[in-house]
Amino acid sequence: MSPIPRRSLLKAAAVAGAAAQFSWALGRGDAEAAPRAAAADGPVSVGWLEKGGLGAAPGSTFGVPWPKGAHPAGQRFALATADGKDIPVQTWTTAHWPDGSVKWTAHAVGPAAGAEKFTLKAGTPAAPDKKVSVTETRRAITVDTGVIKAVIAKDGERLVESVTRDGTKIATDGRLVLLRQGDLDDGDHGNAKWERFDGEISGAKTEQGGPVRAVVRIDGKHRKGSRSWLPFSVRLYFYAGADSFRMVHTITYDGDAEKDFIRGLGVRFSVPMRDAAYDRHIRIAGEGKGFLTEAVKGITGLRRDPGAAIRTAQVKGEKLPDPATWDQRVTTRLQYVPTWGDYTLAQLSADGFTLRKRTKPGHTWITAGGGGRATGFGYVGGAGGGFSFGLRDFWEKHPAQLDIRGAAGDTAEVTLWLWSPEAQPMDLRTYHDGMGQDTFPEQIEGLNITYEDYEPGFGTPYGIARTSELMFWANAATPSASVLVDQATAVRTPPQLAAAPEHVTKTGVFGGLFSPVDRSTPAKATIEDHLDFLFAYYKDQAEQRRWYGFWDYGDIMHTYDEDRHQWRYDVGGYAWDNSELSPDLWLWYAYLRSGRADIFRFAEAMTRHTGEVDSYHLGKWAGLGTRHGVQHFADSAKQQRISTAVYRRPYYFLTADERVGDLMHALVDSDETFLVLDPLRKIRTEPYEPDRNALSIGFGTDWSGLAAAWLTEWERGGPKAAKAEARLRSTMETIAAQPNGFVQGSGLYDLDTGKFAVATEPAVNVSHLSAMFGLVEMCAELIDLVDQPKFKSAWLDYCRYFNATKAEQKERYGKDFGSLLLFQGHSRQDAYAAAQLKDGKLATRAWQKFHDSDGYTKAMSWAKTDLEGPAALEPGYENLRINTNETALFGLAAIQNLALVGDQLSG
Fold first, then answer.
1. Topology, domain 133-297+338-427+460-492
2. For FRET with 252, which of 468, 646, 759, 879 sits at 20 to 30 Å CA-CA?
């Protein structure tokens, strides 16, 4: 197959008009490209993941895949409701097939998208009544949605200078706040000092400029005096006709874990207060639909009654009539009613929040309530306008906090704390002192007892990152209770449109390794039941075991301790999973075939976590991830298999999320990391020093990660697409050229040519881990995309012989593969080879290895055993047989086997 025609893409960009300001990652040129004839592929139905539609959210962005050849580059698309009403939509291409046709498109819709179901098809999109527009000057970017206008600075400390509505300033001085503490008091001997840093902008740029969606990116660091640290990247999203905007906020830790303790990390806005104190309203969401509903100067509950209508209006947030019309026993004494200017809701754990208020600094706090899990949403303002604000995953990523300060004065200050200053300072030091593991032999001994691969200096958080999502509304007046509930709901669960599994399946994306859920036979229904059981089990375990917290949320545990009835959270490499054996892929494939919202949200949280926290984004290990462990960054095995783009691709293409796009683009040059760190340094038996022109790189966990980054860059048409395509093709060619292909195990890679040296002698180096970190999925995609028969043959050989008998292996390769594991997980390779070769015997072996080898066999008990005290900390249930390695492999094997050879499953 020919490569993506770059000249065609550039030509499309040249005629893009208003879309010329788009960044490459947003599909330069496609939003305003010339209309093309309708493609053969029919309209696609899209709907909301959850009930409720768009609600109070400003808009939604979603991705749709297309079959090869269905639409030419630059194709425009139209969106309509089920009853034929045209909906404004902005479209850009996020991936092309190698023939240049459209593979994935992204689509943005604004508040006009009020229906439950839509039809997307080739055509001319409707124009929004109120377009979002972007204008720039030397020092600022102004975004106008047609309802609100935001001025975004290109330098200084104020990211958002102002947000106005109908000429009225609703919020000003949007900025970032960091509190640093230089030491920790581990006892009770005194107080540690702390200092404040402010976010300082190093640059801002428009990534997308309308007409339906605008995106502005702001980068910088936190500064105090001469020191700048903790880099941030903030994106602001605006939709045509919306009264709100979304923020995606990322920090990357670049401090010294021994002395740079984060005491607080927040986003702050100022809110002008124009109304009388009794017309100023505070709304803070509690749990569920609960709200604290108050005024800065309350006139309810007083000894004297201003009148029922007055009291009712204040509770509703309506402007009150002139106090001269009230009962004068109240009016003449209003000065003696306290004004409550300060409020704080602190969520210091997943299970409890406290809410308090005070009149002003220098006076005590009064308890205003509390509860379990707060929504993370609030409002401050009055009849003349106000500001709603919310932080997603508020209790899941505790400790979090919402502050309102100075609401009784001329300007209130709102702070959404991503890390609460009332919590213990963020402590990222390693959890033990090394225990004498100073040499490789000692570290191997440690690995043999705790499963932790420790090495001095490697357990560092330097370079890990975390992304948070926030949402803000500029209201013309205090919203009604129902509107506030809708806004809070939008913060908790941003509305997401998606195409149905049937459409996604027929397009052949992601290697065609999944098919819609099918319960048509008892045997298939049983497998589907087991898949459902496993997802429910991990979802329930996340709640039962409280797998929450700022750095932890989104990950799951690796292995269970049946004696303690607890996951091995404190035992070396058995603790946090960090993508070991691809649970990320299991979850995404489970979603792609089912369309289930609960699976999508679970996978979304995992993608946010593993792509940020488990991988390095700065420093010498940038581009590598960390193996599973007690802390996400503690293990000394830093490898491609964790940072791999394989785990990010589904979320990116389904949502067009720019931050995840950044992560994958950053991996294009990660082959350079093999110069810095040898993954096999502790177990090599022969001398080896990394050489730029002869780097030892495995064809399994190493190459699959590199290939995923190169493929993604190539099909996205990124700045390094030509290099990525060349590396992809040259490594595929030189792996295939090895005497034993993939069975050779590894090769010497030349960073300058992008090729593996072809070995002169055949070798057999097969590991049960090699294919289990995305290699199966990458090879299926690449064989479909790139016409290299020798590569296909080499991969099919590996698939055919891994689960073969030792005698068959020896006959083919001169020696057998040795002692192997994970046969159930590898049954999907049997299934792939069976489907490609139309080999019924391989299909039979695929199901035999799936049901009767290792992993969750037919003898597996799918029971739940109830747990309660004192055996367990929290009541719940367990299944002693379940562990995450086997869960991920069972899930992937079940899904792929059903898709590839499901028609040959008996029963």
1. Beta-galactosidase; Chain A, domain 5 (2.70.98)
2. 646
